[in-house]
Amino acid sequence: MTPIAYARHRFPPDVIRHAVGLYLRFTLSYRDVEELLAERGLDVSYETIRRWVLKFGLQFARNLRAQRRGPSGQWHTRKVENDNSDQHVVRFSQTTGHFPPSTRRRISAQKRHRGAQRTP
């Protein structure tokens, strides 16, 4: 994580961080962010916010990506019953909630196989 230098700016770093964060996090226009800051008593033009976003936005994104946790190697199991009352153990990731690719392929193959058996 690289520190962001706020030297030679009129407003404190907290105001700049808040304005850029509002613009990047929510689907707001520069003028909307200007109005939100005006409600808090800060007189910042939308052009200043645009310059801040252009200058600091990429650094904010890099720092957020660096702080984001990676996927864990932990998998949890859950029993799932299908139409034929067979029990299958399905593993899913704790962090993402997705099935591993091998399980997805196996489940889709079982569905195709069952569909082929039912058609006369």
Q: Roughly how many Å apart are the termini?
A: 62 Å
**Average pLDDT level:** 78
Shape estimate: elongated
Secondary structure tally: strands? 2
Order of helices and strands: HHHEEH
Biggest sheet architecture: 2 strands, antiparallel
Number of domains: 2
What is the tally of helical segments? 4
Tell me the structural class.
Answer: mainly alpha
Give the helix level as a range of percent.
40-55%
Q: What descriptive keywords fit this protein?
A:
single chain; 120 residues; mainly alpha; 2 domains; two-stranded antiparallel sheet; 4 helices; 12% strand; elongated
Structural write-up:
- This protein has 120 residues and is mainly alpha-helical.
- It folds into two domains: 13-67; 75-118, no CATH class.
- It has four helices and two strands; from the N terminus they run αααββα.
- It has helices at residues 13-25, 30-39, 46-67, 101-118; strands at 75-81, 87-93.
- α1 packs across α3 (46-67) and α2 (30-39) crosses α3 (46-67).
- The longest helix is centred in the middle third of the chain and has 22 residues, at 46-67.
- The protein starts with 12 loop residues before the first helix and ends with a helix.
- The model has no long low-confidence stretch (mean pLDDT 78).
